[in-house]
Amino acid sequence: MKTTTVFFGTEQFASEILQSLIDSDSFDIQMVVTQPDRPVGRKQEIEKSPVKLVAEKYNFPIKQPSSKTSLTNLQSEIINLKLNIVCQYGLIIPKEVLEAPELGSINVHPSLLPKYRGASPIQSAIINGETKTGVSIMLMDAKMDHGDILAQQEVNIDPDDTFEVLHNKLLEISKPLLVETLKKYLKNKTKPQVQNDNVATFCKIFTRADGQVDWKKSAQEIYNLYRGLTPWPGIWTTAEGIRLKLLKIAPTNSNGVPGQIIADKNQLLVGCGKNAIEILELQPEGKKPMTGIAFKNGHKDIIKLI
């Protein structure tokens, strides 16, 4: 018999987790809860979440609560079901809803908890220069990413891994790990492990402001920021009032004054607190992307980035 389940999720990672549950053929998805459709991009066109698109494909009932009250009201619809499965939902789920199903709620979190509790574990691990991270399958309680851990699996972070690359690595290990862990949990064959709150770390929601480059930092730190925040929100700097989005960069062993363009005919090199960054591709505000050399040749008067 399939397990009656409610799925909570919003982002792309979550949509593929939902698909893996469907493919397993072990779960009877009674309802999908996702965030409301939102305006996206410069044109502010209304866009459905990736999870909603999957739910519509399979004709699952969809709920999109727009307030805490409407989210809490889901309790009455969930109370007779077996399980909530949560992944990248993006909103705080009330305790009453978490505890409504017979077997509670299970979350898929892309970090090795208790490290990187919060909204941006993949980006934060890269930005902080971690060399490994992983996925945690956990029971949920009223606190953020705090519940007992049912299973974890590590993955290496390679030196040039961007957010998208690491996202996909974590997704590929998350799908089978979740399904296998759920099967064990439903048979009461898991041993939940309490998290050590003393070593917990937290991560925030990133905004465009977080992408501003501080040239006083080392080239490696700036490269880590680029890897973590590409493609969104991206990293940027300014040159004589021109905002420049840095689309592709690489660390080098060259040295120079922080923020100052280093004399080199074949590269656009910028000094950092330690070593230098080569800007391979950038986009001035309001213009099309261009190579670093093309920008340099067209702006010979610019000698410093801020």
From TrEMBL:
<dbReference type="InterPro" id="IPR044135">
    <property type="entry name" value="Met-tRNA-FMT_C"/>
</dbReference>
<dbReference type="InterPro" id="IPR041711">
    <property type="entry name" value="Met-tRNA-FMT_N"/>
</dbReference>
<feature type="domain" description="Formyl transferase C-terminal">
    <location>
        <begin position="207"/>
        <end position="299"/>
    </location>
</feature>
<feature type="domain" description="Formyl transferase N-terminal">
    <location>
        <begin position="6"/>
        <end position="181"/>
    </location>
</feature>
<comment type="similarity">
    <text>Belongs to the Fmt family.</text>
</comment>
<protein>
    <recommendedName>
        <fullName>Methionyl-tRNA formyltransferase</fullName>
        <ecNumber>2.1.2.9</ecNumber>
    </recommendedName>
</protein>
<keyword id="KW-0808">Transferase</keyword>
<dbReference type="Pfam" id="PF02911">
    <property type="entry name" value="Formyl_trans_C"/>
</dbReference>
<feature type="binding site">
    <location>
        <begin position="111"/>
        <end position="114"/>
    </location>
    <ligand>
        <name>(6S)-5,6,7,8-tetrahydrofolate</name>
    </ligand>
</feature>
<dbReference type="InterPro" id="IPR001555">
    <property type="entry name" value="GART_AS"/>
</dbReference>
<dbReference type="InterPro" id="IPR037022">
    <property type="entry name" value="Formyl_trans_C_sf"/>
</dbReference>
<dbReference type="InterPro" id="IPR011034">
    <property type="entry name" value="Formyl_transferase-like_C_sf"/>
</dbReference>
<dbReference type="GO" id="GO:0004479">
    <property type="term" value="F:methionyl-tRNA formyltransferase activity"/>
</dbReference>
<keyword id="KW-0648">Protein biosynthesis</keyword>
<dbReference type="InterPro" id="IPR005793">
    <property type="entry name" value="Formyl_trans_C"/>
</dbReference>
<dbReference type="InterPro" id="IPR005794">
    <property type="entry name" value="Fmt"/>
</dbReference>
<comment type="function">
    <text>Attaches a formyl group to the free amino group of methionyl-tRNA(fMet). The formyl group appears to play a dual role in the initiator identity of N-formylmethionyl-tRNA by promoting its recognition by IF2 and preventing the misappropriation of this tRNA by the elongation apparatus.</text>
</comment>
<dbReference type="InterPro" id="IPR036477">
    <property type="entry name" value="Formyl_transf_N_sf"/>
</dbReference>
<dbReference type="InterPro" id="IPR002376">
    <property type="entry name" value="Formyl_transf_N"/>
</dbReference>
<dbReference type="Pfam" id="PF00551">
    <property type="entry name" value="Formyl_trans_N"/>
</dbReference>
<dbReference type="GO" id="GO:0005829">
    <property type="term" value="C:cytosol"/>
</dbReference>
